[in-house]
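Q: what sequence does this backbone want?
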């Protein structure tokens, strides 16, 4: 959807993409194709200045890129947890995503995409990855 939005897709087009099965018989190839398309779309610096019609709201391409990075980061943790793999996330990416998502703290649990949001039960000395995952509705 992100590549389509950068390419000029409308909100309605994006919503239709969300309800369309795209993996077919080869989910790995579908993911690889999607990642290549997104990388190509965001490779143009002008993409960051565009206003896109995301289903949630109109936003600059730079914000859409931030959403994609956060989404991919947290879902990589979800997958690692599900299959028993190493759950360690890149600390630099964690820091960037945390900075981008922290302003949503007061209402993130109401958005509908982050579970109940932060548990508000973490110790002040918790590591950055655990804090970010908790903010995004995960309970590591």
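A:
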């Amino acid at each position: 959807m992100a590549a389509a939005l950068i390419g000029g897709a409308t909100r309605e087009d994006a919503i239709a993409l969300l309800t369309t099965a795209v993996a077919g018989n080869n989910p790995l190839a579908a993911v690889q194709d999607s990642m290549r398309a997104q990388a190509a779309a965001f490779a143009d610096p002008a993409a960051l200045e565009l206003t896109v019609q995301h289903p949630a709201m109109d936003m600059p391409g730079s914000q859409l890129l931030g959403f994609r990075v956060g989404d991919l980061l947290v879902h990589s943790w979800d997958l690692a947890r599900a299959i028993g793999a190493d759950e360690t996330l890149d600390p630099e990416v964690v820091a960037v995503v945390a900075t981008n998502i922290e302003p949503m703290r007061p209402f993130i649990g109401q958005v509908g995409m982050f579970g109940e949001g932060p548990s508000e039960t973490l110790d002040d000395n918790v590591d950055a990855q655990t804090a970010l995952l908790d903010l995004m509705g995960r309970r590591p």
